[in-house]
Amino acid sequence: MFTGIKAFFKGIERKSDDGYEVLTGGALPTAAGVSVSPEAAMRCSVSFACIKVIAETIEQLTPHLYRRKGDDRERATDHPLSALVTKAANDWTPASEFRLVLGTHFATHGNAYAFVNRDAAGRVVELIPLDPRTVSVRQDPRTMAPVYMVATGNPALPAREYDRSEILHIRGVGLDVHKGASPVTLGREAIGLSLTLEHHCGSLFGNGAKPSGMLKVKGRLTEDQFRRVRSMFSNFYQGVTGKRTMILSEDMDFQQVQLNSVDAQTLEMRRFQVEEVSRFWRVPLHLVNEMDRATHANAESMGQQFLTFCMLPILRLWCDAMAITLLTPEERETLYFEFLVDDLARADIAARFTAMSSAISAGILNPNEARAMENRPPYAGGETFMRPVNTAPAPTTERTHA
């Protein structure tokens, strides 16, 4: 008895945000009867789609390092950090893969960590992703700054301690001062119900998609007769190949006692869970292939909402975290990071060219600036700003009073 209790509590590591004990692998129990961990959430089609769309969106957007020059700015391509965030985070990880890994960790665990490797002069030379399951955060009682404990992976070696200058930490929403909450943990009930419904449908169709029932036999059956009737019934009725006609004797009667999947509205429940799970990541339904409410008229608007309300807050966290960890206080006076999101914000080509034409005609952009936005080379004379010839500043006249 005591051995079983010790085995049950062996995996307990820490308290979760809502008071539940975190068991082995971070799996938490749900009312649906399944334990939901980050690995289990990746097997749920909806949560996996939400995690994937956020991680891959971060992957395809490139952060650039900019330098302020008065009222203007320029890309600081001469700074060593520019190559780390745009080309390769280290010798074996391309910058896009680095963003994909950390984006997946952020969308799954609510936190993303990377080790900041510096040379003898204190310059950043490498960014190495860390498994968020091996990182814990505590607060220094003296400085109030976060201190990171990273497990070594070897049980014989203690965890190593790092200060905030050595760890790039992108923190999500959560009540903890120094650590974000996992969307998987917060949405475990919705994810657990979705997994349960999926398992129910799989079991239903695995048994021939037929409802269970009750076989009534008149009289009392011996044990051998009971086993023979049950074997005969199972051979004809259960399994995906159970489509043969079953013949019952005159003393047998079959009565259905369970509703089928249509009557139980299982399909409607699964559709509702798509909406329920997507709320925890604030991902529009059309991005998880739920197209019931998507039309040609609102698809572009929903894409803009995804950028504005889902991705831009995340990208701001990335920019600020990289600035405060990778740049010195003096560099932050003139340097800053910014993601290029023009590709996500683009409309169709006709509407885009019409808007650029209007901006050039009004003198907001010059032709070369518009061409640069389309990744096209400049041409001679294209740096001239245009102004409509039929407009001019309004003359100032004094108002006369009678």
Automatic annotation (TrEMBL):
<dbReference type="InterPro" id="IPR006944">
    <property type="entry name" value="Phage/GTA_portal"/>
</dbReference>
<feature type="region of interest" description="Disordered">
    <location>
        <begin position="379"/>
        <end position="402"/>
    </location>
</feature>
<dbReference type="Pfam" id="PF04860">
    <property type="entry name" value="Phage_portal"/>
</dbReference>
<protein>
    <submittedName>
        <fullName>Phage portal protein</fullName>
    </submittedName>
</protein>
<dbReference type="InterPro" id="IPR006427">
    <property type="entry name" value="Portal_HK97"/>
</dbReference>
